[in-house]
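The freezer alarm interrupted the setup, so I double-checked each line after restarting. Inputs confirmed:
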Amino acid sequence: MRIAIVGCGQLSRMLALAGIPMGLKFSFINDNAQPDTTCVDGLGKVVAWQPGDEFSALYAALGEPDVVTVEKEQMNVELLIGLQAFCPVHPNPDAVKVCQDRHQERLLLDKLNIPCAGYVYGEPLDVCAEKLSLPMVIKSCRDGYDGKNQWVLKTPAEVMALEAEFAGQQPLNRDYIAEQFVPFDREVSQVSARAVNGDMRHYPLTENRHDKGILKQSIAPAPGASDQLQQLAQQHMASIASELDYAGVLAVEFFVCGEQLLVNELAPRVHNSGHWTQSGSDSCQFENHLRAITGIALGSTAMSGVAGMVNLIGTEKPALSTLTADSKLHWYDKSVRPGRKLGHMNFKAANTDLLLAGMSGFSRSLEG
Amino acid sequence: MRIAIVGCGQLSRMLALAGIPMGLKFSFINDNAQPDTTCVDGLGKVVAWQPGDEFSALYAALGEPDVVTVEKEQMNVELLIGLQAFCPVHPNPDAVKVCQDRHQERLLLDKLNIPCAGYVYGEPLDVCAEKLSLPMVIKSCRDGYDGKNQWVLKTPAEVMALEAEFAGQQPLNRDYIAEQFVPFDREVSQVSARAVNGDMRHYPLTENRHDKGILKQSIAPAPGASDQLQQLAQQHMASIASELDYAGVLAVEFFVCGEQLLVNELAPRVHNSGHWTQSGSDSCQFENHLRAITGIALGSTAMSGVAGMVNLIGTEKPALSTLTADSKLHWYDKSVRPGRKLGHMNFKAANTDLLLAGMSGFSRSLEG
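Predicted 3D structure, all chains:
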């Protein structure tokens, strides 16, 4: 069985590494002329594609895959629609399309009565400010990730400055939602797998800590999360995945406000906040994504103890002496650039105190 | 960091798959003109070597590895000695040499006062029969694995028949030990990792079930094994590994007779009876072998629940529908031949009853 993945980054790499043991074969679609495909070196053929290229030629060059999947949502959905003529595509193109546009996401959530922060779409910034009152957060509908294309506006002067900036730009860049600033307690994410037949397996709710918009650390299960909160997250997840007729791993990011969950965004793929599952769960998210899209029974998502992850961002490969008995290094073999996600370290421990001690010890060793 | 492995089989494959996530690089030495190296396709360069070839050219072709290791003991040790001029070799050539010869193994065990079945070396078969009394087991000193080159002799007629068979053969084939037949309760193995600095981590004692000399199933921890038996196995392991100045994963197979352990044989490498660690342990034997030989802190060998493995021998790849939430397929991508180890299925469960139910359900599905 062969799986073609759109994208040549670390998520594709880790999907392939999870599937090769099972005897699955992989090929990769380089759909945006990415010059650096070192992440997937040796793991399968890389085939370039650009709009206008024949889908039959692409399908043949990929080795006639049995299923096509994605490692990202920011892509030309026509590629997925074109390949659907040859084999199943999971998640389906419509699901990817919804998740690549914040406004579409909001319409879906509104339809399902799933709460998110109050928002305004399609209005000038000053009208948004009036309707929501300041501070508010402006988020581009597309290409917003790792804190990019987001602006927190606190004063009328900041609103005017951004209005002026947008005025000179392409319409797509001016396509945004304005969102009420939510004074949330913390951010968590629900990562779950849904099989083609509708079966679901949920990982425990994960707490995520960001720095300048980029995920820095995850801890699972989210410390102190009540059963009620966990169930609420799973209910929202199930309702979204079912509505999208989704197959694969789906991630939903939430703001936690007391016992309330507000959806921040959806990711139709394996997710950085699920990387800890490589150490902490009986089946990692990468394996379960593959199981979900190929019709293999979903793997157990049981965990013993607690787990965590520290992202390695813009830093040289850590010395192997920083590894302990309870940590695992995942290095993506990318060239080092500031702000770039280059790897992560997973941690496992018997309890949260020990986990945090291990994680902060490692983080200190990176800075020192 | 680059690691070169002697051998291109499934153990090399699984070592590489355990190391690639850490950013380790691999190359493989095809030292016996093995035509089928599909196991390691894509995982690193394969370099052929035969006696007489220059070691400096080999070392360069391998990409100047930082350390050399092995996936097997039946090999020309001159290869390891030759490469030692360029980089560390773990386990060391002397250790491999001892483990590739049953008589050398026995001399080592005798020196360490570690019990094994009574044996005779260097005597004609009829003398052995007289000294040990029948039944006895004849085991070639070299090239004995998976039940090959072993003979159980129960009657004087069988002794004479084998004597006649040996008479026409090369001296090496007639190099054997004769061993008392041990009416053992079961076979178990101890798999442990020893780091370059002497640190050790032990996996729980594993029970192994064979069919026609080939390992068919493993279960860990060995059901009902007392703490005392576990400690005894670890003591023997530690004493052997220390005496050999060993770095890497070492496996010791034992016969269990009541609360006594008799060493059957040693394997200076990751071992089939440790494959369950991929599912059942915080760190699998492949990762710990790499950690041990590269100076990375050994990974935790803690396990939750129980784990087992079923070998896939001479059979087509099982249908993916045979996978359950608690099983993981490892398929080696070799061509199918009768009697050949082609893959294995790992199982995890909360207790031994559930584990055995899962394993036998799968085994039945293979036969059906």
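Quick read of the result. Residues 90 and 352 of chain B are 35 Å apart (CA to CA).
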